Amino acid sequence: MSPSPPTGPPLRLLVLGGTGFVSGAVAAEALARGHDVTCVARGTGGAQPPAGARLLRADRNAPEGLAPLRGIRFDAAVETATLSLPWVRRALRDVSAEHWTFVSSISVYADTYTPGQTARTARLRPALTDVGTYDPTVDPEPSQATYGGVKLACEQAVREATGDTAFVVRPGLVVGPGDDVGPFGYWPLRMARGRAAAVPAAHGADGLALPAQCVDVRDLAAWIVDRAAARASGVYDAAGPPVPLESLLHEVADAVGHSSLELVPVPEGVLREAGVRPWTGRPSMPLWPPRELYGALSRDVSSSFDAGLRVRPVSETAQAVLSDRLGRGAGTPPVAGLTPVEEASLLRLAGV
Asked: What InterPro entries does this protein map onto (predicted)?
């Protein structure tokens, strides 16, 4: 899918971020459409915004870190702050923008069990309004309740400052080239190796089909830029249509799989007996969801498609992820999944 051409005059766009997975994709999409892009980031860790973007180096932990932006008018601002309510409040105070986008998360929803929920029907987690700047060195894996609560508090701050004019997008699992930490990236690499590949059995111990739902970061970025250009508002989830995990893995296999590839379903009981973790981590079976995530991976996103979200086939994402990972070197141990030795041990336990 190629970037859409500008539908109006170029935007003067501020991306609060620009060096991360999602924020970098937003900046790249906007630049590809001819918009004028300024990114705000520390710029000290080696990561840089896409070529063509203007970088404003700023420490957002400092109370006056965004002071240089005061008096500058932007057509639109995209805020991607992960776990810092103070960052969001300071941006709303110091940045002048005609339109705001806040990238939130489906972690704001309290019920992750029930399929078919929408942004209008789902219960929200309690917002955590007294949270300071998130320090990953202290809490490298925040609970979903903490993460969702902070995101919801940030949403509320955006609405209080902008009224009903902001676009609040709640992504689910975001995948695509450039992602080194999510569970999806394991599968294109594994399928490309060929031979017998251990995959989760299609149904869990309770007999329910395992669900899957994701969105390519490039499609998310395109939608965000579309909505900013249209000065559109509302609260929406961002995800592709829900599908069975079995179907998603077969689509990945068909797109990048070696001719010798055989997918071997491993029952849930065998996975647990082998000490394999669900979803992510090491060792794990990536994208194998625990029961409490079935609803989070089966959301009704029809209203998002009505509002212009368009998603590419999973096969296209798999091909791009494989090319990206191989191009950057895929020899390091995976952050999610199984090593070849761990997978061979699991297949023996499964009787293969």
From this structure: Epimerase_deHydtase, NAD(P)-bd_dom_sf, NAD(P)-dependent_oxidoreduct
